C-alpha cells in the first residue's frame, strides 16, 4: 500500500490497477513507441500506440513505467485517453490535464509531463516509421 495520505485515490487506483500495462512489438509498422525519461529523478516511461493505418485512429495502447506512483498513474491514464482518438487529437493532451485528473500535487507535475512527452514521442515515432516505409515502398519497382 502506498501512502494514501499523499496521493489522491485515483492515483492509488491507477497505481494498484494500472490499465494497459505491457508492450507491443516496436518493429510492428502499426506501432509507435515513445520512450522518455525524467532527468530530475531518473524515472523512465515507455508508451506505445497501435494505429489503424487507414483511419489514423489509435486503436490500442500499452505502457511500461519504471518510476513513482504518480508516473505509473499518469501513464495508465494516458493510455486510457489516447485509445479511440486521432493522432492529431492526442498531440494536444496536456500534462496539466492528466495532473488535474489525478489531483497530483505541484511536486508531481513532472511525472505527468513524462506522460505528455511519451504520447508525443509515440506519435512521432509512428509517423517517422510510416514515412520511411512509404519511401521504401515507392522505391520498389
Ligand atoms: Fe482513470 Fe480517469 S480515473 S482515466
Ligand atoms: Fe519522477 Fe515521478 S518522481 S516521475
Automatic annotation (TrEMBL):
<keyword id="KW-0411">Iron-sulfur</keyword>
<feature type="domain" description="NIF system FeS cluster assembly NifU N-terminal">
    <location>
        <begin position="7"/>
        <end position="131"/>
    </location>
</feature>
<keyword id="KW-0809">Transit peptide</keyword>
<comment type="pathway">
    <text>Cofactor biosynthesis; iron-sulfur cluster biosynthesis.</text>
</comment>
<dbReference type="Pfam" id="PF01592">
    <property type="entry name" value="NifU_N"/>
</dbReference>
<dbReference type="GO" id="GO:0005506">
    <property type="term" value="F:iron ion binding"/>
</dbReference>
<dbReference type="InterPro" id="IPR011339">
    <property type="entry name" value="ISCU"/>
</dbReference>
<comment type="similarity">
    <text>Belongs to the NifU family.</text>
</comment>
<comment type="function">
    <text>Scaffold protein for the de novo synthesis of iron-sulfur (Fe-S) clusters within mitochondria, which is required for maturation of both mitochondrial and cytoplasmic [2Fe-2S] and [4Fe-4S] proteins. First, a [2Fe-2S] cluster is transiently assembled on the scaffold protein ISCU (ISU1, ISU2 or ISU3). In a second step, the cluster is released from ISCU, transferred to a glutaredoxin, followed by the formation of mitochondrial [2Fe-2S] proteins, the synthesis of [4Fe-4S] clusters and their target-specific insertion into the recipient apoproteins.</text>
</comment>
<dbReference type="GO" id="GO:0051537">
    <property type="term" value="F:2 iron, 2 sulfur cluster binding"/>
</dbReference>
<keyword id="KW-0496">Mitochondrion</keyword>
<dbReference type="GO" id="GO:0016226">
    <property type="term" value="P:iron-sulfur cluster assembly"/>
</dbReference>
<dbReference type="InterPro" id="IPR002871">
    <property type="entry name" value="NIF_FeS_clus_asmbl_NifU_N"/>
</dbReference>
<keyword id="KW-0001">2Fe-2S</keyword>
<dbReference type="GO" id="GO:0005759">
    <property type="term" value="C:mitochondrial matrix"/>
</dbReference>
<keyword id="KW-0479">Metal-binding</keyword>
<keyword id="KW-0408">Iron</keyword>
<protein>
    <recommendedName>
        <fullName>Iron-sulfur cluster assembly protein</fullName>
    </recommendedName>
</protein>
